[in-house]
Amino acid sequence: MLEKMEILDVEKLIGDFEVMTKDAENVQRETLKMILEENGCAEYLQNMGLNGRTDPESFKACVPLVTHKDLEPYIQRVADGAFSPILTGKPITTISLSSGTTQGKPKFVPFNNELMETTLQIYHTSFAFRNREFPIENGKALQFIYSSKHSKTKGGLFAGTATTNVFRNPQFKKAMTAMQSECCSPDEVIVGPDFHQSLYCHLLCGLIFHEEIQLVSSTFAHSIVLAFRTFEQVWEELCDDIREGVLTSRITFPSVRSAMAKLLKPNPELADLIEKKCSRLSNWYGLIPELFPNVKYIYGIMTGSMEPYLKKLRHYAADVPLISADYGSSEGWIGANINPSLPPESTTYAVLPNIGYFEFIPLKENVEGHMQENGNVSFLSTEPKPVGLTEVKVGEEYEVIITSFAGLYRYRLGDVVKVMGFHNSTPELKFVCRRNLMLTINIDKNTEKDLQLAVEEAAKLIAEEKREVIDFSSNVDVSADPGHYVIFWEISGEVSDEVLKECCNCLDRSFVDAGYVSSRKVKAIGPLELRVVWKGTFHKILDHYLRLGAVVSQFKTPRYVGPTNNEVLQILCDNVAKNYFSTAF
Fold this sequence. Notes:
By secondary structure, this protein is an alpha+beta fold. The protein has four domains: about 10-110, no CATH class; about 135-320, no CATH class; about 355-435, no CATH class; about 450-580. About 40% of the residues lie in helices and about 20% in strands. It is built from 20 helices and 24 strands. An eight-stranded antiparallel sheet has the order 9-10-11-18-17-16-12-15. Strands 2-1-5-4 form a four-stranded mixed sheet. It comes from Gossypium barbadense (Sea Island cotton).
């Protein structure tokens, strides 16, 4: 389809979406039928006793709910080059690696052409609604995207991060062109082997095409903030390169240097303009529209663990709208942001009923339905039965289950979502948190969202001293009895001991979970500890994941560092500058 068109037909895309979402229940039945017919010959489904049945009732009766751990042996056989169909009818040729920031190591997930098609459908759908609200002309996009090397599995399959598999697919570039969002950086920069060099070149390309830049984007908000924090450090060097038309010696890879040499010509007027713009900014407020006067919006995933970066991103963006990108994971896509004018904190995602088969486990009836075992969430048999896409209720929270075209059947994604409403007959979901990222010692249960709210509340105290929390994480220390919460903060500058002690107390008081408060009062949980780490510590964590093969565009700071993530915990503990214990209880 893309080969025949230059620009997407936005109104047709919206019209198709409206028709499909008005009949979400039937579309879901047809989607499940298609998945099971395409993959019915696969060993996994053959063993389930479906005997050719494709209806939801038989599917749920025969196929169990699974986690990645359950499917790992099957995926490993695929990666090892098993000849027979294991999970899918057609052979899997590519493996995606998850970011690894949740559990400390990447997971293998199947990736195929069908998953690429759903990726493009999500991109097209959200672009259609976005472009109706914020139309962009045929310019360029400053995209902070990075592609890691493709390696090969034992069986000869290509393996790379999910974003790498998308960015390296020839359809991706065609899709960006069709959406008038072509990256201003050459391919050599995107696939460059060193992230720091690629980031520098992305910034340089953005400046060269500064008047043509229509949007600034990355997979995650974190990458955009990191890019402009880096700009603050290297802007004078960038101006030197533009003035002289010669690339800095810090860029060492010949392919990247050669690609940049084709773009970089001496331009002292542009260098003077950038210097003038930078020198008149107050603390870099409004940097993005100052550098890129025609930018229409800033785009990337800004919900969930990305929300803490919004304050800094708004500082750089000034009045430029922030639009959160779509909802998905390495395992597959779920929904598109069709209300782009909403602020990121209010973003919802409309589920596309034809990109997979979706079920939802109600959480309200199951408040005590999971327990902690050795730091892992263990799901009990008392859980409510999953409900279908059109059976969810507004205001309720659910865990997401996906059945995809890429060999995942009734797969527990581990995400908690809240149903905020319906678009026609498909639900609009708000991402709440990861279900298994939980601070807990005994009866207390604090999620990633609870941690974020506590940090935001305590950070107000240092904001009065014009300081900010650059990044944060947490851990449960049970090396002594009673165990206690540990919060790690990296701060933008010096803060007095007196204020940091009050921050520590504020953090402790801000966890309002009844189990936590009662446990603190009876000293079943010890005083919360705030550990302030040296500046640059969280960059060391990023570098650690890059060494493991992650890419920046897929990186998420781990908000909870559990027992399986010893190396990251060691980095944090080795870089503690000061620590404080709460006296709040």
